[in-house]
Amino acid sequence: MTETETIAYDVVVLGAGPVGENVADRTRAAGLTTAVVESELVGGECSYWACMPSKALLRPVIAQADARRLPGLRQAVQGPLDADAILAHRNYFTSDWKDDGQVGWLDGIGADLYRGHGRLTGPRTVAVGDTVLSARHAVVVCTGTRAVLPDLPGLAEVGPWTSREATSAQSVPGRLVVVGGGVVATEMATAWQALGSRVTLLVRGKGLLNRMEPFAGELVAEALAAAGADVRTGTSVKSVTRTDGTVVVITDTGDRIEADEILFATGRAPRTDDLGLDTVGLEPGSWLPVDDSLRVTGSEWLYAVGDVNQRALLTHQGKYQARIAGAAIAARASGTTGLDAGPWGAHAATADHAAVPQVVFTDPEAAAVGLSLAEAEQAGHRVRAVDVDLSSVAGAGLYGEGYKGRARMVVDLEEEILRGVTFVGPGVGELIHSATVAVVGQVPIARLWHAVPSYPTISEVWLRLLEAFRDN
Question: How many helices (H) and strands (E) are present in the chain, helices listed first?
């Protein structure tokens, strides 16, 4: 019989993705002993099955699309992409799904790694196999989310793709059905269509990217269709079967679609079903609500950081939360009684409420921060939306012929600050941080006139937006 070993730490972190790594980095920097528990690869979903591999697939797609907009370069890039080279480059960015480098980084900051499934066994205790880790100050859940598949009879036998298979596939399917209209669906439809798949995109709702301004989804859908994808909105999957390797999809409208693979990008669920939450009075499989210091509601020692708390399911936002949580844990461990927990304080994840930035790496790119017009109105703000055609900016014309895009800022008419900003168009992902600074900093419109954009850049859209607000 194996004897159980108990080891004490100041902090125990469940999950070694970017969020868990950042929590560990901050607690170690504060001098707290820290254990990190990981059942898969150190680096997590983002490094191996999400952000990094998806963007490695998409970067050549976007670069070719941009090149085709330029006279003198267009003819040189008319041939098909080298799919094998792109897939190999993607493999390089995932380190061929080996985590040696990230394990070395954890070791370098002085955190101890425990491989295996970590499970709470009671307050401040985590079991990993025959080892029990006890936490003097905090247990931090950073286990993220998993893809949710719909309840369709026989779906498991079909072998559907989720985001993991879509970002790690080693060959290009001849025909691919993508189910969903969000970020994963649109990005993967963009990538695989360009790599040679015949893509059919099935969207249950009326349009794509329904968490952004409506024009974002409209422009992305238009571009996908122009690239050759079959985009069908208002369409649900009724049944899916696979016969002799061919996937057969029947829609609710009675259409029959044949494909080689089918990707479901239809939602995420928290990875909390087997964490032992019941041993501390919480519901297994549930999202973990937290306060702005990322401490689980009703607990003095349990934290939930990143996607698992459902505040903002984005890697960069989870890392932001991790920095806040690490600082809060360190402050409480030192005996600090009054945290800087007010809005925008050192121990408050305020941006989750007011200034979450996101870039969708489609062609065109869609980027947004803060509240959409509808969200701002629903929140009770008296606002006005100001729109500008991005093609009216000199920098857009230089970026490429036929540039098509749109910008919107949502202005709070009482405080004369920005509540939200959205850009859609080629290359706009690099514009969104300026908008994030303006929203987070609550920069007055009057002061923004003095932030002079360089000519001729696409950033000059800021001047056009201010002029439109002034003149209308």
Answer: 16, 21
